[in-house]
Amino acid sequence: MKQKEIKAELSEKLEANYISFMREWIKLEPLQLIEKAEEIAATKLVFEELKDGGYSTEYLEYLLRFKNPLEVVRDKWIEENGSEMMHGDDINHALWSIGDKQYAEQAYELDEAFLQSGQGVRMC
């Protein structure tokens, strides 16, 4: 897959993930929304940061493996930073950590369309 295709595919997937989250949030009662404020803020921060694909192609291609890459990066972001303002170096660290440890492959649903049989991912 070429860099441009990877960015386009991931952008489309992130948009769909974000819309899905918003549909869930709309159904919540006000107190439930308040309890999810950090998650909502972090989801929006990660979406805004990743949607243009300005990160390593290797990281972006790895994220395509997941049905909900927005959730994967958001959860890692919250684990490491809470819902603080995001900076490029911070998101790069989160992406590196996800790819390096590859724990997410056991914790999150993978997208079969983007898995390559027998081929592992090596992150720098």
Structure report:
- This is DUF3848 domain-containing protein.
- It comes from Desulfitobacterium hafniense (strain Y51).
- The protein has 124 residues and is mainly alpha-helical.
- Helix content is 66%, strand content 0%.
- Helix 1 packs across helix 4 (57-63).
Keywords:
mainly alpha; DUF3848 domain-containing protein; 124 residues
User: How would the global form be characterised?
Assistant: globular
Count helical runs: 7
Biggest sheet architecture: none
| Element string (H = helix, E = strand) | HHHHHHH
Number of strands: 0
Average of the residue pLDDT scores: 86
Protein name: DUF3848 domain-containing protein
Produce a short descriptive summary.
This is DUF3848 domain-containing protein. The chain is mainly α.
Task: Show the helix and strand layout.
Layout: H1 3-26, H2 30-35, H3 37-50, H4 57-63, H5 69-81, H6 88-101, H7 104-107
Helix pairs in contact: 1-3, 1-4, 3-5, 5-6
